[in-house]
Amino acid sequence: MKLYLTKKKTQTGMWIIFVILLATFSSCSKETDAPIESGKTLVKINMGGSNFGTDVVKKGDTRASGSRSKQFIIPITDKFNMVATWTPENTPLADGTVAGRKDGLIAATSVLTPLPIGTKYSIAAYNSAGAYVTHQNYTYSAGQTPELSLSPGDYQFIVVASGSNTLPTINFNQALSSINFDLLNADMDFMYFKQTMTVQSGQTNELNVVLKHLFTQVILTLNTEAIGAVGSIGQATITPNYSVVSVSLSDGSLSYPPTSTASSKNLVFANSTGEILVSNPVFIFPNSTSTGSITIANLQIGDITKPLTLSNLPLLDGVKYKLEFVIQAAGINIGNEIWSGGNLVYDPVDNRYGFTASDNDYGNYWFAGYTLPKLLDGTNQGPSSAINGAAGDPCALVAPAGTWRLPTEAEATQLIDRTGPNGSDNPHNINAYDPARYVDTFDGGTSATNLGMFFGIQGNPGATRHDYLFCVYAGAYHNENTPGPTIGNEGNYLLSGTSGGYRELHLTGVAGDVGYGINIGQAEANTAYQIRCVKQ
User: Fold this and answer.
1) Please, are residues 162 and 183 in contact by the beta-carbon 8 Å criterion?
2) Residue 301 — φ and ψ, nearest 5°?
3) How far apart (Å, rounded) are the C-alpha atoms in residues 382 and 331?
4) Where do the structural domains in the chain lie, given as residue ranges?
5) Which CATH architecture has domain 64-99+215-329?
6) Which backbone phi and psi does 60 adopt, to 5 degrees?
7) What is the pLDDT of residues 368-427, one digit of tens each?
8) Cβ(93)–Cβ(81) under 8 Å?
9) Which residues, at least 6 apart from 163, have a Cβ–Cβ distance to it below 8 Å?
10) Do 246 and 86 touch, CB atoms closer than 8 A?
11) Contact 179/208 with Cβ under 8 angstroms?
């Protein structure tokens, strides 16, 4: 009997130990999850990244055009202009379509950026009446999916984050409608998210978070390839940048208290010399009721020294803007016409027509009579109105509209005659009997510059190369989807014919050739050409 009792006690004790060990193991295996309290369920938080505002332009907003790219032309000298393009990133138009889409077929979308590792963020939950329930603070790591344990019901979820890794002090533990706080530092990349959701018991509840940047970001790019490298650049500033902004946690709206005053903010370039300068991104408090201006105190390129000021720039809270300054030839006067300083290009993102920064660069390839260029992705062998746009002259769409056009056959003939051996645009600087045309790489050396034909001089002009018409040998796509043998070896330029048809200015020759390899022929309907525009 005594042996029996001892055995039973031993078995009972072993069973108790087993149960304790099992419970301990189970507890340890879930230590990374939020504890589920009795009667509650889990809400998984999926941190999807961030974007800049896409809903800031409403119908009826008198500044709705601020969602489109705006282009300004600033004279620099009698030969060069500064073309400035102010572009918001993926902001929809007042009708809900995206800026830059001519067809209006794509709904408004925005660029989604993953959260940087180390981003500080907070998640807060309020009930449907706005009463505080809970909040948690986190530091983001790859693949992180926080969880909140909540009772079933309706909630308002708020997520705030700082890409600057410093969150403002926020007292979450009060009524949501009462939480407002001031921020004094526009360098803080403050982001916000809100969503109402019903938390249901017995199923997976997931909250997909995409944070919206509340402050405005500006990046400035300066391209001086058409003239040469920047020697020095003075301080660049953007105005206005207000001193204080108030944030409402209940909806992420911004307001500017009477104590908030406007000043300027410096734009700092990563490099201060070179042909392409890019500023570090800056955040500002612009106050969306105003427009802005950007000033560069002094810009020195070669013997040109000039301040730059650009005004009346649309500035909306929470939008990312890019300002590009590109120096382009104002026009090259030769052959009794003013020719554009570069080949014709089209930017589909901004729906913008313009010219290459340098006449050494390839432009787009164009089918005769169409206003959008050939797609080079293998889907556009021949012209199609669905792809290549409406009928018309794409030169006429360069801003300001109607100031440029496609050159005619007669004008190309005039250019050939006036730069010929006896032409009025021939300086005879090398040989009295040769034409004033010369085939060479753009810089006359063995660098990466392209081959082409100079007009108006009998040799490579060297440092003054930007003063002459240079038609780059970008070739053409002769009814082909892959680059053909003419690209890099010949010049093929589209002309309008005297009888309503289209013609081709054809240039040939190798580096060092006198420019005799020039003629005008018939343009082919399935061939996509380069275009060099003339002044209207």
Assistant:
1) no
2) -135, 115
3) 32
4) 39-52+113-213, 64-99+215-329, 332-535
5) Sandwich (2.60)
6) 90, -10
7) 999 999 999 999 999 999 999 999 999 999 888 899 999 999 999 999 999 999 999 999
8) no
9) 50, 115, 116, 119, 189, 191, 213
10) no
11) no
